[in-house]
Amino acid sequence: MASSVQTPLSSLNRRLRNICEREGMDYGEDVLDEDELVRRFRVATQMTAKTIRGVMSEIKRAKTVDLCFLIDGTSSMRPHIEGVRDSVAKIVNTMVRSRAAPTGIEQLRLAVVVYRDFDNPTPMEVCQFTESPDKCVDFCKNAKAISGAKHDPPEDVFGGLEQASKLQWSKDAGTRIVFHMGDSPCHGNRYHSASMRDSYPNGDPRGRTSQDLFKRFKELGIDYYFGKISRHTDQMIDEFCKDYGRFITTFSVEDVSKIAGSVISSISTSVEENVEKSKLGISRQAKLRDYRLDGGTPAWDSLPVLQGTYLVYELPDTVEDVVDDKPLVEKQISNVRVKIAPNPFAEGSERIAYFGQDLFVGYGDHRARSATRRGGRAVSAPRRTVVVAEPTPAATPTDIVLKEYKYLGKKQNTLERYKTACEAQTVAFYLADQFNSLTGPLGEPPIKFLKTKALLLTSSKGLRIMSCERKFFGDVKFVKFSNNCAYSMQSAAREVSTSGVDPRIVGTVMAFSHWTFQRTDGFLMVVDLQGCICEDGTITTSLQKSNDAKAAAVKKTKTKKVLMTDPAIHCLDVTRYAPLNLGRSGMQAFFNGHQCGQLCRRLGLEEVTQPSEKKYM
Ligand SMILES: [Zn+2]
User: Fold this and answer.
1) Which InterPro entries match (predicted)?
2) Does position 375 have pLDDT exceeding 50, yes or no?
């Protein structure tokens, strides 16, 4: 194992080089001259600030929504047309940015397309996009649910899809949604059971195909959701999935009172996905790796042993060291032996995750820590004893989770990107420890970050880089408490209402972000908080090992802990923690959506309406 102390100069050069290369510029040799380094730092800061402005405006676009209700308008659908009429106000009030929902979407326009069948005297009725919920409601009041003469079950669904694609979608709407409800399939035996009577068993009499219609949807960036009323549409949706090229989220709306909630959920999902893509600078057309998800247990015995190298960072000594840009000590551990599942078991907005096994133990990262009290405040004073040891084969492999970026492209998969993510998580880990030493005595559940490493695997196919963490233990639920720019409280509130997450824990997590801001004097804050709430006895062994005394003490008094992963850090020095660092804009977005709770007040955190305007360098 080799430890390398990055000097402030080499660390800064590395960061600036990365920014330059991301912008397609050549950095050349490391710069040693201080004036030149300051000049380059300014240039890199300006370039990054410009990128952040672009990201913020993309986020705003993602929060501008056009939503089209596509409804079968034949006689059996009367309750659902009325259901849409009655849901519009609730949808608008819940979603649109207001005093009640401060982090909601910026603008929501609604359209309605009612389709019937070829033989119907009124085959189609359209309400163009409007910002006025009343116009929508009036349209639904006047739309009749009427059937035609021929009485075969299939309807002209293709006509409806085509009409939806021809609406005047706003170029400012970064999120576009079609929410389709119908109880009958489209024409063509491909889409329904052969026993169903169909005047056009060979498909659309006008020659339109679902391939072409969904291709058009994809070109327009439309997310398609389906509200299911009867099983007669199941085969149609299966076929649509193939043409759409992705899974179609289906809601059961047989009970019309479910319409509003289903539409709200669709909007939230699409907006959050688009916000995530915006902040990562991923274009809607970005190319994904070729993978399929497989949640099963891998056949470990048949998988090859891979040899690689871990990169890990040591914790900083003080918060001031973090603020002062003292580089973290980087350790390289070679001769690592792992196995990796062939397919990922889960995906997030930027990465896919694989099960893995680490076959060795003894990476020598045991350190003793002790908490002392100074001036009445609990201060965690790290006393390090770093045991250096070569890894040796383990009796039983350790379960690990390996993640890699899911979009292809050179900029998406650089070692620098994995290193930066590791550094951010190491800093978050340290800050959470500091936070826990203050909140533990108040009876709050501790917040822990998983330790993360970068794993470098060299093979004949080239270098593969992944990040590596211990696997969450037991049957735990993954919760996204906040992201780095929008929806923090809203997502949290939704989690509280829909999945029974203890609101007190949400309060603790939000207070942690706020505390990191105040503790660093407004220099940085840890956001994008996501992870698992663990009951007693389900924390991973690594935590128990590294902190035996504390874990035992915690066990007596606490029932819950929060284990987090993949944080982002907003920092006034925008050359750090790229690409998720949105600087002051990100901090502002957090405070726009944050209302201080009880814990914030007990910790003496000051309410922030506007993060400081002070310039960094
Ligand atoms: Zn607060």
Assistant:
1) a-kinase_dom, Kinase-like_dom_sf, Thr-specific_kinase-like, VWF_A, vWFA_dom_sf
2) no
Ion ligand 1: residues, CB < 5 A: 514, 596, 600, 605
Q: How many whole angstroms from 605 Cα to the centroid of ligand 1?
A: 6
Mean pLDDT of 493-504: 60
pLDDT value of position 10 = 87
Phi, psi of 468 (to 5 degrees): -135, 130
Mean pLDDT of 538-557: 40
Judged against a pLDDT cut of 60, whether residue 181 lies above it is answered with yes
Residue 349 has pLDDT above 80, yes or no: no
Q: How far is the CA of 87 from the centre of ligand 1 (A)?
A: 34
Ligand 1 center–CA 511 separation, angstroms? 5
ipTM over 0.95: yes
Fold classified for 300-602: Phosphorylase Kinase; domain 1 (3.30.200)
Contact predicate 431/363, CB 8 Å:
no
Q: What angle do CA 252, 255, 261 make, to 5 degrees?
A: 65
Smallest Cα–Cα separation from 276: which of 97, 443, 483? 483
What is the Å distance from ligand 1's center to 572 Cα? Answer: 19
Q: How far apart are CA 269 and CA 275, in angstroms?
A: 10
Residue ranges covered by each domain of the chain: 2-55, 63-279, 300-602
